[in-house]
From TrEMBL:
Protein name: DUF5675 domain-containing protein
Domain DUF5675 per the UniProt entry, residue ranges: 6-131
Species for this entry: Parapedobacter koreensis
Domain of life: Bacteria
InterPro entries in UniProt: DUF5675
Length: 149
């Protein structure tokens, strides 16, 4: 069974940079909000742990992505079972201000003024989205989030 995991590697002032692996293969960078002991709505990374991935076809973001990525979109890849969080998706974005607790995909990263950002986010998303959907469809719907900060 291929394992999906995010390994968090570095913390900025308001951001967290991680690596997404599917089956022990590095797929892209992940940008999140800051890892905090106490949740601040829209400004906190999901806690380290093990979660379930699923496809959400009803959230508002789904309609935008369905239009934008019509040829491949099957629903937003959602991270489920997170305490005190809901509607956490993999999606495109560049800055920690784009996340609101979600996971942003990136092809490469930069550190600017103490915070990480990811770039070529849409290219990374187009790469990892079908891989994540395939994992879900094959029943490999578990994902680990590991802090190595």
């Amino acid at each position: 069974m291929d394992e999906t995991k995010i390994i968090r590697m570095a913390a900025g002032n308001n951001s967290t940079l991680g690596h997404l692996y599917i089956g022990n293969i590095f797929c892209c960078y992940i940008l999140e909000d800051t890892v905090r002991d106490r949740k601040i709505p829209g400004r906190t990374a999901i806690p380290a742990g093990e979660y379930t991935l699923g496809l959400n076809t009803v959230a508002g973001m789904n309609a935008r992505y369905s239009s934008r990525y019509a040829s491949m979109h099957r629903g937003m890849v959602e991270v489920r079972g997170i305490p005190n969080f809901s509607l956490v998706f993999f999606h495109i974005g560049n800055y920690h201000t784009d996340t609101a607790g979600c996971l942003l995909t990136g092809s490469y990263w930069q550190l600017i003024d103490g915070d990480y950002r990811v770039l070529h986010s849409a290219a990374a998303y187009k790469l990892v989205y079908p891989l994540l959907v395939e994992q879900i469809e094959q029943g490999n719907d578990r994902m680990k989030v590991i802090n190595q900060l």
